[in-house]
Write a structure and sequence with these properties.
single chain; alpha/beta; seven-stranded mixed sheet
């Protein structure tokens, strides 16, 4: 199968505390991969011109090319806003596709729709009936100024950034593709769903 990669970079956010899981969820075994992050990375890699992992530290044995790792410049505060700041300071890309390590079922068709719909917006994110998925979508480096101000004002809510930007929300029907792995129960549910899907 010949895949034409999206002309946009992908960054997988994998620098969270995993406090509800009680251990680093990105390193939990998943499907046929040794870890959830390896599963997500290898699954998405063929579809993007470049793919990176955003993290606090290098904890990824499978990642041979360390240029694909973006280490948060702030090591003490766990915040997707700080991750975005480091990502945009590291990459030259005008826009990047952002996804979290703990959403391993988001369909390629969904990603394609988000990318193709993002042209005139600073943020384009997914939404299902149950919730808005603030960290599944396309983010523009035009947000740098807003991000800097938020950090200065100690505001770390991703929803605040969305509301302050020129944004759009794309609706999707399938809740299952946005299964989020935050605790042991959700991890078990995701393992079972992966077996039947």
């Amino acid at each position: 199968m010949n895949i034409k990669p999206f002309e946009i970079a992908c960054v997988i956010l994998s620098g969270g505390k995993s406090s509800r899981m009680g251990e680093d969820k990105s390193l939990l075994p998943f499907s046929s991969s040794s870890s959830l992050i390896e599963f997500q990375y290898e699954r998405l890699k063929p579809y993007f011109k470049d793919i990176y992992i955003s993290s606090k530290i290098d904890k990824f044995d499978f990642l041979d090319d360390k240029t694909k790792l973006i280490i948060d410049k702030n090591q003490t505060i766990y915040s997707p806003i700080l991750a975005l700041q480091t990502i945009f300071e590291t990459l030259d890309d005008e826009k990047v596709f952002i996804i979290t390590v703990d959403t391993p079922f988001v369909k390629i068709e969904t990603i394609e729709k988000l990318i193709n719909s993002s042209n005139n917006f600073e943020i384009t994110i997914a939404q299902t009936l149950e919730k808005t998925h603030n960290l599944c979508g396309v983010f523009s480096n035009n947000l740098n100024e807003t991000i800097e101000k938020m950090i200065k004002d100690d505001i770390h809510k991703i929803n605040y950034l969305v509301k302050k930007s020129k944004y759009q929300i794309i609706n999707f029907d399938d809740e299952n593709e946005f299964i989020n792995i935050n605790n042991k129960n959700e991890y078990e549910k995701a393992l079972n769903y992966n077996l039947i899907k």
